[in-house]
Amino acid sequence: MLLWLSLCALTFLAHADEAPSLLLAKAITRDVDVTAYLVSEKLDGVRAFWDGHILRTRHGNVLRAPAWFVERLPDRPLDGELWAGRGRFEFVAGVVSKELPVDAEWREIRYMIFELPDAPGTFRERVRELQRVVDAAATPWLRAVEQTEASSRVELERKLADIVRAGGEGLMLHRANALYVTGRSDDLLKMKPYQDAEAIVIGYVSGKGKYQERLGALRVRTEDGSEF
Predict the structure, then answer these.
(1) What DSSP letter does each residue of the chain carry, written as one string?
(2) What are 12-21's pLDDT values in tens digits?
(3) Is-contact 53 87, C-beta < 8 A?
(4) What is the pLDDT of residue 222?
(5) CA of 118: how far to CAs of 78, 114, 179, 189, in Å?
(6) Residue in 142, 135, 165, 160 with CA at minimum distance from that of residue 150
(7) Strand 183-191 relative to strand 195-197: parallel, antiparallel, unpaired?
(8) CA-to-CA distance for 177 and 123, rounded, in angstroms?
(9) CA angle, 42 then 153 then 124, to 5°
(10) What's the chain's average pLDDT?
(11) Which of 55, 115, 183, 196 stands the most exposed, by the fewest C-beta atoms within 10 Å?
(12) Phi then psi for 10, rounded to 5 degrees?
């Protein structure tokens, strides 16, 4: 399989000491009992953590959202994705990276919530509470990510094919009976038509030949310390 790097996760390194502790996904394996999980679409947006007061990326960088976007968010932690529809990651990344937010651009973004960090109960119970929180906020751009179930691996793969065919990225599986934990865990799995990995940019190599005086390649380091 091809190895893809999620370079969107390589920015915002300056505030790593302020990064929130969140649940991170592992790749799904063939031996997983998919009936034990709730399934949702993997949204191709920018992950955002709301601590009740400030909106941050998963690496801790403060997102300069307009006041109207955050003033009606609940005063409790939320974990979700800033999303503007399938295939629009570049648009969202550009919008949220601006020091001065542009209202018209933020009007196209929705905050899609998939978790209530530190909330009690199983994930299935937290999903019900999450929907109540979103309904109570009555904010058009705050929405709950839809969670469904799959009765078999065949049905799950059919869901994946439908999502990809419609322009989506993949699926997320969250163990239905899991209490909230942080760090990389098989309580949360991702399923995509190809494998990917995240890495930190640690340098670059200058181009040669016709690419002289241009960027030749990035040097990156993965979570296990591998560099290439």
Answers:
(1) --EEE-GGGGS--TTGGG----EEEEE--TT--GGGEEEEEE--SEEEEE-SS-EEETT-PBP---HHHHTTS-SS-EEEEEE-STT-HHHHHHHHT-SS--HHHHTT-EEEEEE-TT-SS-HHHHHHHHHHHHHHHT-TTEEEPP-EE-SSHHHHHHHHHHHHHTT--EEEEEETTPPP--EEEEEEEEE-SSEEE-EEEEEEEE--GGGTTSEEEEEEEETTS-B-
(2) 333 444 789 9
(3) no
(4) 58
(5) 10, 13, 9, 19
(6) 160
(7) unpaired
(8) 6
(9) 55
(10) 88
(11) 183
(12) -100, -5
Beta bridge pairs of residue 203: 219
d(CA 80, CA 65): 15
CB 207 within 8 A of CB 215: yes
Which token pair is 157? 């793969």
List the structure tokens of 193.
């038509």
Q: What is the mean pLDDT of residues 141-159?
A: 97
Tell me: the pLDDT tens digits for 76-119?
999 999 999 999 999 999 999 999 999 999 999 999 999 999 89
Q: Can you read off the two tokens belonging to residue 86?
A: 């399938």
121 — pLDDT class (breaks 50, 70, 90): very high
Could you tell me how many residues make up the chain?
Answer: 228
Separation of alpha carbons 144 and 134, rounded Å? 7
Confidence of residue 5 (pLDDT cuts 50, 70, 90): very low
Mean pLDDT on 33-62: 96
